[in-house]
Hints:
Oligomer: heterodimer
Number of helices of chain A: 10
CATH topology of the largest domain in chain B: Metallo-beta-lactamase, Chain A
Structural class of chain A: mainly alpha
Strand content of chain A: under 5%
Strand order of the largest sheet of chain B: 7-8-9-10-11-18-19
Number of strands of chain A: 0
Largest sheet of chain B: 7 strands, mixed
Structural class of chain B: alpha/beta
CATH architecture of chain A: Orthogonal Bundle
Distance between the termini of chain B: 48 Å
Largest sheet of chain A: none
Helix content of chain A: 55-70%
Order of helices and strands of chain A: HHHHHHHHHH
Number of helices of chain B: 9
Shape of chain B: globular
CATH architecture of the largest domain in chain B: 4-Layer Sandwich
Strand content of chain B: 25-35%
CATH superfamily of the largest domain in chain B: Ribonuclease Z/Hydroxyacylglutathione hydrolase-like
Number of domains of chain B: 2
CATH class of chain A: Mainly Alpha
Shape of chain A: globular
Largest interface: A-B, 28 and 27 residues
Distance between the termini of chain A: 28 Å
Order of helices and strands of chain B: HEEEEEHEEEEEEHEHEHEEEHEHEHEH
Radius of gyration of chain A: 16 Å
Radius of gyration of chain B: 20 Å
Amino acid sequence: MNRFAELLDRLAYEPSGNNKLRLMIDYFRKTPDPERGWALAALTGSLTFQHAKPSLIRALIAERTDPVLFELSHDYVGDLSETVALMWPAKPRQERRPQDLTLSSVVTALSSLGKSELPAQLARWLDELDESGRWALLKLVTGGLRIGVSGQLPLRSARGIRRRSS
Amino acid sequence: MRAEDILLPTSAGVYCELGGFHIDPTRPVDRALITHAHSDHARAGHGAVLATQETLDLMRLRYSEDFARSAQAVDYGEKVSLDGAEVTFHPAGHVLGSAQIEIAANGLRIVASGDYKNVSDPTCAAFECVACDVFITEATFGLPVFRHGDPQVEIAKLLRSVALFPDRAHLVGAYSLGKAQRLIALIRSAGYDKPIYLHGAMEKTTRYYESRGIDLGRVELARGVNKTELAGTITLCPPSILREPWSRRFPEPLSCLASGWMRVRARARQQLVELPLVISDHADWEGLTATIARTGAAEVWVTHGQEDAIVHWSVTQGLRARPLDIAGYGDEDEPDSASDDLAQVT
Lengths: 166, 346
């Protein structure tokens, strides 16, 4: 999940299509199946699951932070998912196991999870991830992965790794 | 006796009437105590200046020999009596020579911490927590969204990018005094041993750091180096230069910016940064709140930054807290505050 989050971060800031292509090819090369398959689906917008609403995210953070500090932070950052990702009270680094949490396991769980189970599961995931990982997760579950990549580009990069490795 | 009778907040900085001095005054005064050499805290034109040797040297480098009528160097931990007040400088961990200033008078102890960070930095003395009655803190990153994390993780990101784009030049915007030298030291400790290139504005301070025994490996000026030779290299420059024509001398420049602000995406996008690196020379939210608690101070004064959140937090902890509203302390992490960098170019 953290490597996927880093890819999303780089893609969001990189203006050039060619360089985006290179970042995706690098990711697809270094990432095993089924993880890279899910990443491709996420990048092309073809994942379907029940999305979380902003009110759910708000409720989760309200249980964990001072309301005044949350409002000051939200005003400053602007974006709700990003504010929550940044100020989520994280466990100390040594207690986290971010390597264990894969995009595959998140997507699989999301498609089978009942609506009432979502908040607790989301909180457990947020506890395991770092800032970037939490941001990517929240963007994914709220359906807001806007990273300036058209549907064709990820497919081209996936073809790119086949060509180069053959 | 109230703290305000010893140290009076004025619009030009805090003033100690008993000792007849200002701390980091924003306009020329007779006697100034300077916490560190960043230009918003260390201005030219004061009468007498008391600061650490490094701060005085850096002020000389940045202004000129006659930056003040007289200058006196003070060691960390050395007690100096100034009329009715006793002052002691303690390491602030912000940049080379940076200090917190402790003022003791009439049984009350106040610490003006200037800018500080409580994490390790191979290029300056480590922050030292001083017990006090009143703690004066900055609040540059005084919101709980600011957690700077491990700088080596960010350096690893930079080095992965350099490996992935061997035909591009990585330009890393970093403040000329402190941030640039710390970055070089961090890159070296990650095992990168190729030359690191510099914009001319950073040369004097970087050479000064080296002269104080800080090993930065091979550091060269980018000026005069062939464009093709700069592919796959790392160059440090002042943040304001990233968008200037200067960057055109590099092959396909990839603009990076090392700053605590890079934690917030909108800030990185505003600067057109392609690779944000969250590395700061200021304490983050956890650093600020943990430090306030550790000083044992019952009262907190907040000089600049996100005062509201730090004041609110202090009050929830049962402390007295107030913002000082001193105009003129900028933020050296802000890419638009280029005054220092320009002062060095000319």
